[in-house]
Amino acid sequence: MRLISRSRLRLGAAAVGVAALTATASTVALSTTAYAGPAASAHTASSTAASTVRDVCGAAKAGYDRCLAEVRTDVHEGLGVRGKAAAAVTGHAAALPAGFGPADLQAAYKLPSTGGANQTVAIVDAGDDASAEADLAVYRATYGLPACTTADGCFTKVNQTGASAPLPADQGWGIEIALDVDMVSAACPQCHILLVESDDASSQNLAASVDTAVRLGATEVSNSYGATEGNGIQAYAPDYAHPGVAIFASSGDSGYGIPIVPAAYSSVIAVGGTSLTKDVSARGWSETAWGGAGSGCSAWIDKPAWQRDQDCPGRMTADVSADADPNTGPAVYDANPHDGTPGWGVVGGTSAASPFLAGVVAQAGNPAKFPNASAFYSPSAAAGLNDVVGGANGSCAGDYLCTAVAGYDGPTGMGSPNGLSAF
């Protein structure tokens, strides 16, 4: 990666419409030092109202990243196992919690329920979630997924050096961690899960944790966090480039604007977001661009040869997408009382889409196919992707930079999974 020339930088700024972004009241406040997170007015009308959603992580200071999960504040479904498995505890089955479960997501994206047993999906997050394994057990029991525990070798939790102890202090990312492990489980129930907990949310420690995940044998790595691109971002690019291992990162939850890293690194698969709903179509589901999904034209990172969109001279995000809208989000279980109201909730953000798609690649068993996102841009991948058309994540006069159009677009990339053939 090299810095783009000053003239290219000016073109990149024009491409994201900085003047328009700063001139309208409906835009996100953009920082040159840390990703400031979503503002309610940045989302389209289809997004969850500000009064019913909150960011799991607050604004990050310079040199730090923030997690990108968004949790519904109007959904509190209580504690404990649900569904048929509840009978073992209460003597009778209980209704499934609100939000999409694994069977819903597998149906929406035509995914098998088995496969990936030889894959290890790593999740990189900041700080410890003491209840992560116990919460995962509740989620998987509720939906009839096989157990995934430390004892059976399926689940592993380590610190950023790869040791099981000491684990770092809680950094307030518990809901993010629960979302991540639940989404890997939904996409690939037989995959192994490796949770690497960095000491804190500094960009340096998160990057080091990615290296640790790869060293410990991860075949896919998901990163549901980011910081606004700017001077110095190239320092951590090598930590997100591991040929043979598919590296995913959320594209952001503030709509169209300045890209975030690690998603903008050319070795990373940048994951955008959709709004997913059931309907009566032949597919049985419909998708549009989620108004909060991150997209943008990099002023710092060169355009990869495999990315050929015309209006952005640098790296464009996103590459591919999946459900991310909190209004249409998955059910997630987090019983940690430090994370707000404990128990079942509905969580969204591109934080949901990144681990889910890491699980899809693991399900297909082809991580070496993705040293970057180039495979998704191949004509042969088209049949294996749902081309998402409709919806926008900002104002760009209908351009693909912020509007879901036929073919490539910023909010949803090349589309969402339609089976495993593209993965």
Automatic annotation (TrEMBL):
InterPro entries: Peptidase_S8/S53_dom_sf, Sedolisin_dom, Tripeptidyl-peptidase_I. The lineage of its organism: Bacteria, Bacillati, Actinomycetota, Actinomycetes, Kitasatosporales. GO terms for biological process: proteolysis. This is S53 family peptidase. It comes from Streptacidiphilus fuscans. Keywords: Signal. The keyword Metal-binding does not apply. Residues 99-423 form the Peptidase S53 domain. Residues 1-36 form the signal peptide. One of its GO terms (molecular function) is tripeptidyl-peptidase activity. It comes from the Bacteria.
